[in-house]
Each structure stands twice: as structure tokens, then as C-alpha cells.
Design goal:
Blueprint (H helix, E strand, L loop, with lengths): L7 E4 L6 H10 L4 E6 L2 H21 L1 E5 L5 H7 L5 E7 L4 H5 L26 H7 L2 H12 L4 H14 L5 H11 L13 H11 L2 H15 E11 L2 H13 L21 E3 L9 H6 L7 E7 L1
Parallel strand pairs: 1-2, 1-4, 2-3, 4-5
Antiparallel strand pairs: 5-7, 6-7
Helix pairs in contact: 6-7, 6-9, 7-8, 10-11
The structure holds S-adenosylmethionine (SAM).
S-adenosylmethionine binds next to helix 1 and strand 2.
Length: 301
């Protein structure tokens, strides 16, 4: 992010505050970090950690914002912030989402079929989707957001099963997906339910839609030479980041009848990462969850 002393930085995904604290370190006592998270529990944990690390003084140069980052421009404008030097997106779930059974993200634990990153701001749960969506909508979600080839078979099995009793828990869905898979494919590299759970989580939290909507806001908010950095963990997110950044690097050549093209009239950023930065073998050995991470970065012209 190339942050300097006195800079204003935005952490779009505060989590437990690891990156925010690094950013606070980089911008120093004269700078400020605004950090978004839609999960109130994470904001509370991060606040405590920041206070422990930087003391009460530190809390004066950190502003937590309990909001979906899709409202970034509006929420920052409300605080009088219209231009920033760096914005970071560390997308997806935090480890604490996966390890707490009551959040319903993991099929490895019995829990309610919830998957909302924000229990305060989101209304729709994964159980609502599997119990009420049509078979074809379920198949589309599982195919598009999970890239699951057996999406139709799984959607059909879900609809058959829910006629007997609605789905309430993670293990009920895991068991159904496991048995919807042909026996010879049930013990592959990843568990059969992995893709279906990913798809539902993306749908519940509108993850791709919010990412598409926030990236133009981020570029707009950047001061000249400010940087936007995004770390994504699956190809659907990475594709959105890649295409958006590319669209901002060239003159628009869309014909006039394209009313809502994504291109900018003239290039507004330069991409700093020709191909995405990925973790070294050493980092993956230390932190296996980093293995799918892809980082892309761009600088405002
Ligand atoms: C991968 S974790 C970030 C971890 C963080 N970088 C750290 O150092 O602890 C992603 C965090 O972003 C939050 N999050 C994901 N999507 C969000 C969104 N659209 N709006 C606001 N917060 C979001 C999640 O609740 C989670 O706490």
C-alpha cells in the first residue's frame, strides 16, 4: 500500500484487526485508519486488540465503521472523508467465522444453517434459501457461486428432502450433499459439500455484488498515487477484481449505445500486479489457509 506517515487509510475488512494495526503502524500518530466490518463481534474484538497494542491514544486514530463496505463512499463522506491514500480489501470470511459453529459457515461443525456475516444487518439466512428457493434458482446459485458440476442433482435432492422437513442445521445439508454425490466421488480432495457451502455463503452475503459495487467507489476515493489492494480467496472474486482494474486502465472504446459501461473515459489507475501476487511455499506451510490467496493492486494516476 506504500503508506506514509500522516496518510489516511481504509481497511474495508477489519476482521480481528491484524491489517488495520499494520496500517496504523505505517501511517503513524499523524495518520488515521477507517475500518469497516459488517460483523459487530469482530469490531469489538479488534477494538480491544487495538487498545491493548496502541493504548487509548491509538483509539483516537482508528475509526471502526459497522457497515457493509458497499456503502463505503457514503459512510466516509458522512465522516467528512472524501479522499484517502490507501484502501485494502481482505475478502471473505475470518477464521473465527469458520470456527464458531453457531455462525453456520462450516459443515465440519453442527450449527444453525445461518452463514450471515452480519447478524445485525442481513436478514436472509442460508436456511431461508434452501427452504424456499425454487429448484432451478438453487441449481443456478450452486452452479454459479460454487462452480459445482452436480448443481442440478443437489438442488433436486434438496427440494425432495425439504418436503419431509425443512433444513435447520449445517450437518443436515452436509449429509444431503454427501449422499447426492455418486459414491465413487465422495472421497475426493475436497469434501462434496465444499462448493455448495461456498455458493450459499456468497448468495447469503451478496458477496460478488457488493464487491462489484464498491470497487468504483474505492478508485474514486483514492487521492493521486493512492493505492487499492485486494486479496481474494476464490476465482469468482479474483475475476471481478482483475476485470475491474483492467477496465480502469484504458480509454473507453464502448459504442455510445452502451449506457452503463464500466470503463473510464481515460485511464485512472495503473495496475501494479501484472499477475496476482500469491503466497510463497514458506507462507503456505506456516499458514495453510493462505494457499488460495491472490493479491492485486493498483495505483491512482
Ligand atoms: C478475511 S477477514 C479479514 C481479516 C483481517 N484482515 C485481519 O487482519 O484480521 C474478512 C472480514 O471482512 C468482513 N467482511 C467481509 N465482507 C464484508 C463486507 N461486504 N462489508 C463489511 N465487512 C465485510 C468479515 O466480517 C470479516 O471480518
Amino acid at each position: 500500500m506504500a503508506l506514509k506517515s500522516g496518510d489516511i487509510a481504509v481497511d474495508a475488512t477489519l476482521g480481528l484487526g491484524g491489517h488495520t494495526m499494520d496500517m496504523m503502524e505505517a501511517v503513524g500518530p499523524k495518520g488515521h485508519v477507517y475500518s469497516f466490518d459488517q460483523d459487530l463481534e469482530h469490531i469489538e474484538v479488534a477494538r480491544t486488540r487495538i487498545k491493548e497494542t496502541f493504548g487509548k491514544e491509538g483509539l483516537k486514530r482508528f475509526t471502526p465503521i459497522h457497515s457493509n463496505f458497499v456503502d463505503m463512499r457514503e459512510r466516509l463522506h458522512d465522516l467528512g472523508v472524501t479522499s484517502v491514500n490507501g484502501i485494502l480489501f481482505d475478502l471473505g470470511l475470518a477464521l473465527s467465522h469458520l470456527t464458531r459453529p453457531e455462525r453456520g459457515f462450516s459443515f465440519q461443525h453442527e450449527g444453525p444453517l445461518d452463514m450471515r456475516m452480519s447478524r445485525e444487518l442481513n436478514l436472509l439466512t442460508a436456511a431461508d434459501i434452501v427452504n424456499t428457493y425454487s429448484e432451478s434458482d438453487l441449481a443456478d446459485i450452486i452452479f454459479q457461486f460454487g462452480e459445482e458440476r452436480l448443481s442440478r442433482k443437489i438442488a433436486k435432492a434438496i427440494v425432495e428432502q425439504r418436503k419431509k422437513a425443512p433444513f435447520a442445521t449445517t450437518k443436515q445439508l452436509e449429509d444431503l450433499v454427501f449422499h447426492a454425490y455418486p459414491a465413487n466421488l465422495r472421497h475426493g480432495k475436497s469434501h462434496p459439500a465444499t462448493r455448495t457451502f461456498q455458493a450459499l455463503r456468497i448468495a447469503v452475503n451478496s458477496e460478488l455484488e457488493v464487491l462489484e459495487n464498491v470497487l468504483p467507489q474505492a478508485v474514486e476515493l483514492l487521492a493521486p498515487h493512492g493505492r487499492v489492494v485486494a486479496i481474494s480467496y476464490h476465482s469468482l472474486e479474483d475475476r471481478i477484481v482483475k476485470h475491474f482494474l483492467r477496465s480502469q486502465t484504458r480509454d473507453c472504446v464502448c459504442p455510445p449505445e452502451v449506457l452503463r459501461c464500466e470503463c473510464s473515459a481515460t485511464p485512472v489507475i495503473s495496475v501494479l500486479t501484472k499477475s496476482p501476487v500469491t503466497p510463497s511455499d514458506e507462507e503456505v506451510a506456516k499458514n495453510p489457509r493462505s494457499r488460495s490467496a491472490k493479491l492485486r493492486a493498483a495505483e491512482k494516476i
